[in-house]
Amino acid sequence: MSDKATIEIKGKTYEFPIIEGTENEVAIDIKNLRSSTEGVITLDPGYKNTGSCESAITFLDGEKGILRYRGYSIEELAEKANFLEVAFLLIFGELPTKEQLEKFHADIKAQSVVDEDVRKIVDAFPKSAHPMGVIASLTSALTAFNPSSVNVNSEEDMYKAIVKILGKFPVLVAWTFRKKNGLPLDYGDKNLGYVENILKMMFKQPNEDYLFNPIVINALDKLLILHADHEQNCSTSTVRIAGSSHVGLFASLSTGISALWGPLHGGANQAVLEMLEAIKEDGGDTEKYMAKAKDKEDPFRLMGFGHRVYKNFDPRAKIIKKAADEILNDLGVEDPILNIAKALEQEALKDPYFVDRKLYPNVDFYSGIIYRAMGIPTDMFTVMFALGRLPGWIAQWREMRLNNEPIGRPRQIYVGETLRSFKTIDKR
Ligand code: CMC
Questions:
Q1: pLDDT over 70 for what percent of the chain?
Q2: Distance 19 CA to ligand 1 centre (A)
Q3: CATH number listed for the domain at residues 73-263
Q4: Alpha-carbon distance 28 to 36, whole Å?
Q5: Ligand 1, atom 51: closest residue by C-alpha
């Protein structure tokens, strides 16, 4: 392959370098397009063809259904690693040694107390507030309690900010959940693992000990790993672009949480469960909903189906579907919604509308069924996604700052009015 791309614009020819990644992905490097062509830019709504950065964190091949964190396959990590190891791997690039992991966990635990005044903010939210709005606000509020900005040139400063958010975010998640359920706000237990602690902080009743269920711990660990990073998706791009203005880590993360909330992104897990419930309430007629999804006049979409990058299958969905079966079985939960989900999947996999458009179940299609079996309410599903995605956002923010990337600032093609004269109000 030539190492140059040639573009002809208005009779003039320009050459641009071709760059290739370690997995042979190819891009035309257009960094100098505008300056060398007197103002020509590219137009790519939704960035369907645009690489925004070079990244060494996550590799994804949508055609082959491959997902790897730092070179390790998602299948192997989900089976053999725990969430904190994966967080370390994503953020710092290598799997931790035993000592590194212990230190990392100890440093996180040392930072897992939240300023008491944050409780007043939690108290001010109505119980009806959506937990994603609350957690985005609380993450943003952390900037007020930690006002000094991170010196990204200092590894120590960077590390401190990272363990701080990994320590405090689960507390904020638990408080968001407990406040909504009228439970006292409490702290976790320093003697517990990262994931066990999250469960205890969320579910412990004030008048009894919390009983750990290894099936639930393993299920949450796996779900968090599967959600931990997904290269330049909507929320991650948001974190990177916000952080590129040199706003701090916590402020950047809160923008990512807001972006994740939308039903086309992380909010799909809540939307899937609501859709499955609606189908059940409506008599379980999956064919009717398939027809609605295919009807271009109907805004209904089959939530949990389709993906911008995966055009074969979502490897996370494969793992989660199997896990959903096992976990419901192990917990002795019979959920009719699982059967509705399977029926929809079966119909979609042989329906030309879905086959032609390469629409397969994504990570959100089965995850809600597991969360529900674990006792997590529907409106907390996307918060659990955020909990899993946190190390990914941190890793991407860190990479962006260490690479000294320029401020994110796309251009546009203006299609509005050309110059016109101002009309005073009596003449309009
Ligand atoms: N149900 C019915 N039709 C669909 C669906 C769906 N879920 N998804 C895509 N299509 C159709 C769409 O109407 C279009 O048809 P046509 O070519 O006739 O106009 C075609 O498939 C291509 O869709 P698109 O919207 O151009 O694709 P996109 O890459 O812009 O969007 C998506 C990807 C994930 C936003 C979309 O598939 C979708 O809305 N899915 C449902 C929401 C969902 O499950 N989101 C979670 C994504 S995975 C987790 C995450 O991102 O956090």
A1: 100
A2: 29
A3: 1.10.580.10
A4: 15
A5: 265
| Average pLDDT for 152-164 | 94
User: Best mutation site among 50, 58, 308 for ligand 1, i.e. most ligand atoms within 8 A of its Cβ?
Assistant: 308
> At CA 114, angle to CA 110 and CA 117, rounded to 5?
150
Q: pTM for the complete prediction?
A: 0.94
pLDDT of 312 reads 85
The answer, yes or no, to whether any atom of ligand 1 lies below 6 A from the CB of 256, is no
> Which residues, other chains included, contact 138 with Cβ-Cβ below 8 Å and sequence gap of 6+?
118, 121, 122, 172, 175, 176
Residues noted as catalytic: 307, 364
Position in ligand 1 atom list of the atom nearest CA 46: 30
Topology, domain 4-51: Rubrerythrin, domain 2 (2.20.28)
- CATH architecture of structural domain 267-374: Orthogonal Bundle (1.10)
Domain with CATH 1.10.230.10 in the chain: 267-374
Q: What is the pLDDT of residue 132?
A: 98
Task: Check pocket membership of 67 for ligand 1, CB cut-off 6 A.
Answer: no
